[in-house]
TrEMBL record, chain A:
This is Cytochrome c oxidase cbb3-type subunit 1. The chain crosses the membrane at residues 12-32, 126-145, 175-193, 205-227, 239-259, 271-294, 314-331, 338-358, 370-396, 408-428, 448-470, 482-503, 529-551. PROSITE patterns: COX1 (PS50855), PROKAR_LIPOPROTEIN (PS51257). Keywords: Electron transport, Membrane, Respiratory chain, Transmembrane, Transmembrane helix, Transport. One of its GO terms (cellular component) is membrane. Residues 318-582 form the Cytochrome oxidase subunit I profile domain. The keyword Nucleotide-binding does not apply. Pfam families: COX1. It comes from Arcicella rosea. InterPro entries: Cyt_c_oxase-like_su1_dom, Cyt_c_oxase-like_su1_sf, Cyt_C_Oxase_1. GO terms for molecular function: cytochrome-c oxidase activity; heme binding. The lineage of its organism: Bacteria, Pseudomonadati, Bacteroidota, Cytophagia, Cytophagales. One of its GO terms (biological process) is respiratory electron transport chain.
UniProtKB/TrEMBL annotation, chain B:
One of its GO terms (molecular function) is heme binding. PROSITE patterns: CYTC (PS51007). InterPro entries: Cyt_c-like_dom, Cyt_c-like_dom_sf, Cyt_c_oxidase_monohaem-su/FixO, Cytochrome_c-type_DH. Keywords: Heme, Iron, Metal-binding. This is Cytochrome c oxidase cbb3-type subunit 2. Pfam families: Cytochrome_CBB3, FixO.
Amino acid sequence: MENTKELFSQSGIIITLVLLLIPIIVACFIFINRAKLMLKKLYFNYEKKRFSDKIKMMNAEEVKALEHRVQELSFELSDDELGSSREARDQKGIVDNVNQNSVIRFLDIKKKSQAPHEYNPETVKLIIWYISTATFWLVFGTSVGEYLGIKFTAPDIDHISWLSFGRLRPVHTNAVFWGWCSLAMLGLAYYVVPKVSNNQINSLRLGYATLLLVNGAIVLGSILLMAGINNSGGEYREYIWPVMVIFGTGIILSLYNFYRTVANRKTHEIYVSNWYIISAMMFLLVITVVAYIPNWQNGLGETIIQGYYMHQGVGMWFMLFNLGLMYYFLPQQLNKPIYSYSLGILAFWSQILFYTLIGTHHFIFSSIPWWLQTVAIVGSVGMVIPVVSGTTNFLLTFKGSWKKLTHSYTLPFYLIGIIFYFTGSLQGTAEAFRYTNLLWHFTDFTVAHSHLTMYGIITFMLWAFIYTILPRLTGNEPPQSIVGAHFWLAFLGLLFYTFPLMLGSTLKGLMWMESKPFIEGVAFMAPYWIWRAIGGSLMWISHLLFAYNVYRMAKTEIQFETPTNPVEILKVFNENQTEAIH
Amino acid sequence: MDFFNNHIKLFVAALSLFLCLTFVVAILPALNNQENNAPLPTMTSLSLDEMEGKKLFIANGCVACHTQQVRNVEMDKVWGKRPSTAADYALNKRVDVWRNTATLMGTERTGPDLTDVGNRQPSLEWNLLHLFQPRAVVEQSIMPAYPWLFEEKSTLSAGDIEINVPDKYRNSTQKIVAKKEALQLVAYLQSLKQAELPDGSMPMKFLYERKQKSENTAESSLPDGQQIYVANCQSCHQANGEGLKGAFPALKGSPIVLGDDLELYVNIIMKGYDARAEFAVMPAVGSNNKLSAEEVTALINHERSSWGNSAKKVSKEEIRKIMDLIQTTKQ
């Protein structure tokens, strides 16, 4: 028991509990409101009874006076004093597009996407290519992930070397990192960068070159990993250098492309989205070069670089890039400017300053220098500044538009992405403390954390952006019921995936601290791994639905639409007339 | 502000800040650690076979689940005699032109740490069978099986090492023989031994020490014998104490376990055993894992009273006397 007491006095544990409590507190808030409503109702009935008791005391005279007054008050005009009974006409065409069919509201009907806008069809085609290939890698990468999750409970499901756990694990992580997230981000940037520069993209051909190179790198990299050829096991740099050269060339071409577009912008200022996007691309190139140059990788050098690389990959590429996209899409979707431009700038610089320092927090208590570990812990705490300023900025932009949430099929994705941005990132801070490293390091807690962030933040945000922009570019809406199913399966799946893993690995960590035999911890995790596989399956099904939605949004519609407005009907009528004359 | 509206100034500023920080927290510390590091005099370089084994270890992504670091915290004491130091990694260098220096430290411990596995589990037979089918020796293991490192043969040729696989885990009646790769991988695992510091000292203390229970002479103060058995013995002698036919002898009904020759019994636990040709060699489990007299007593009492075994319990004093004797004869 002493042990438990000690556990709850640790700041890392307290922070995590508070973060986990946030959704519960929201639920309590709703519950209290309900209870208040019930109390009010009771009070209402009581007052009503008191009043009717009092009214019983009225004498006949008082009743008469009241009746008289009621008659006076009920005077009304006859409604045709100023006009006649002629037919009403809307001569100025003010009332239009009235929906008179009422339907049974089994599923709440959300607002349609804004009307499609004219955009260079060639650029649209390129963006669709990016998003379609990204979706392919999402489905592929998570199918592999799902299979790996099953292997935790059924290790003898296959005995094929190409499909063994150690080889497939990096196939999963790299496919969703470089395939799904990176391609989706680049595709969306091909819309955002020219848009906020009030300009056309510099070169479409470079865009296609990047598309080919990045996709090629992932195909090649995945095959090599399964064949057992990897770059020696450092997480997220498992692709050998020739593969990363292909990938990096793709990034360089698009970076040049975006940079030229920003340089030739038609606006005076550089919108903050472009700060984030261009910087993310520059930083990705820097970390890849640092990670692959052999000159400082002997002995512990490798470990220090690995800590730096894997964390900057997450923070300087995925997070920075997505925040840039968020600064464009959230205001666009809410139809109002971002709450504070300055907070966006503060978040930008503080993110660079603190995030760069935290890499080695993956190696607390290891033999890398103690001062470097301490710097990483301090940097992790510093991350509170960009995270809180970013979250505040987004939520205050939301403020006043909460009603829109219920009527939109995209905004729930935004909201979940923003909430996980807050909880997921601060959970990372809590995990960096020394005590929490004893408890959680080396366990599946890390796996839960990486899914809360890469999935809860990055993937939910990307979905939000794709559902926002694709219908506007192609004019095709996805079926709203399937978008809803996608959202709920992905969200619930993520909770089923992460919560059991976090609980199980906390208890496993305690077992380790009590020096219980190692194999007991393995056996102990079995039920939690089953829950993880169940959550993973829900997530995986949601990706199939998403892929279908992308197909529906991207395909070219060849469908006859019956004209409904008078202009079109008349046009067809006149065409018929002219044909008849000829 | 002009700065914010000038793309060259803005992006150069952001890139410079990032590059400066990169130098300070990554490149310079990495270079510094690489330059000011040397292997301990007690360490040896990997042999050719061990090196090939390391490559197999990398190719199959073993690092996804196995760490190689003993952190300077109490809970990591089970994985090594002392906390790992920079010198332990000094011989870890770039593999070849295609591949970087191996990531050995790892970030996940889904399977046991391997820093000192060469001392903890040196048995060749056990390692081969474990690679062929981990569940044949550790029932609850979730480690992948590596049957492609083995081949089936109808007759053995010279130098072949046959693996004694229980019927449950084989598809045919043919002989299962370790390929060169399996032997190389095991050679690498057996080479993983934590080197002693030249003066035998500790590089640093283990932090977060747990409060030791007060030394009581009472029987109840002995550690949990079953846990010691699970952690040190069970992977060969199995949870039911019956061992594995043709590989590891049964402790259930064993004359040594039940008999009165305590000296031989403790000797086997501490220094290993290779007297019976039909079974694999037993490593010096007790000395390798630094079992104390209390732990050995608890272990013997557990073995003498489990799986239907029923023999007189032994006392801590008897065992300590025998262990002191072993200690002196060793020197």
